[in-house]
């Protein structure tokens, strides 16, 4: 039997729900967190005020704009892992380099990619209230998006599915199907 110091460590589960604005990242992340009892964070809340103002105006963010936001997202993940707390993060992670930065040094981190019809995304953004990202920024996000390559192993979920079915599909893909909700 291996001693505790030499026993293989299973990495703390981390799941990043990614996609463009309006895909339902926050909704799915919250639903998964409720089902699993995991910590969760909406990446929008990690943006610096200057980014929020740019997005409010419909201006696309640059890589330089996103750098402090991605650093905050990595720090949030690292803090949860230091606590050995499984977690979920809603984060657009539009470029492969952003996803690589989130994954670097964080074994076992998985991505769930919410994807779907542009018209559905536009309608959702037009109908949503109380959020800084509106339909005027969708074109920039879709231009920036680099869909995950097969080797990234992202779990692909259609935004047209009801949230409950999205949760089921993610749980199945993660090998957590049938896991009871926490008390």
Automatic annotation (TrEMBL):
Enzyme class: transferase
Catalytic activity entry: D-gluconate + ATP = 6-phospho-D-gluconate + ADP + H(+)
Database matches in SUPFAM superfamilies: P-loop containing nucleoside triphosphate hydrolases
CDD domains membership: GntK
Pathway linked to the protein: Carbohydrate acid metabolism
Tagged with keyword ATP-binding: yes
PANTHER family membership: GLUCONOKINASE-RELATED (PTHR43442)
Similarity-based family: Belongs to the gluconokinase GntK/GntV family.
Official protein name in the record: Gluconokinase
Native source species: Phenylobacterium ferrooxidans
Organism placement in taxonomy: Bacteria, Pseudomonadati, Pseudomonadota, Alphaproteobacteria, Caulobacterales
């Amino acid at each position: 039997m291996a001693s505790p110091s030499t026993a293989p460590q299973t990495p703390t589960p981390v799941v990043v729900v990614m996609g463009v604005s309006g895909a339902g990242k926050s909704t799915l992340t919250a639903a998964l967190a409720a089902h699993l009892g995991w910590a969760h964070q909406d990446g929008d809340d990690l943006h610096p005020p200057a980014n929020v103002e740019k997005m409010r105006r419909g201006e696309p963010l640059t890589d330089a704009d996103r750098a402090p936001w991605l650093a905050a997202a990595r720090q949030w993940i690292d803090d949860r892992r230091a606590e050995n707390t499984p977690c979920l993060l809603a984060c657009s992670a539009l470029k492969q380099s952003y996803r690589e930065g989130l994954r670097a040094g964080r074994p076992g981190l998985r991505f769930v990619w919410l994807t779907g019809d542009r018209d559905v995304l536009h309608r959702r953004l037009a109908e949503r209230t109380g959020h800084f990202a509106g339909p005027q920024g969708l074109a920039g996000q879709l231009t920036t998006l680099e869909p995950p390559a097969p080797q990234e192993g992202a779990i692909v979920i259609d935004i047209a599915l009801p949230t409950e079915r999205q949760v089921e599909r993610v749980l199945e893909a993660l090998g957590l199907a049938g896991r009871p909700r926490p008390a």
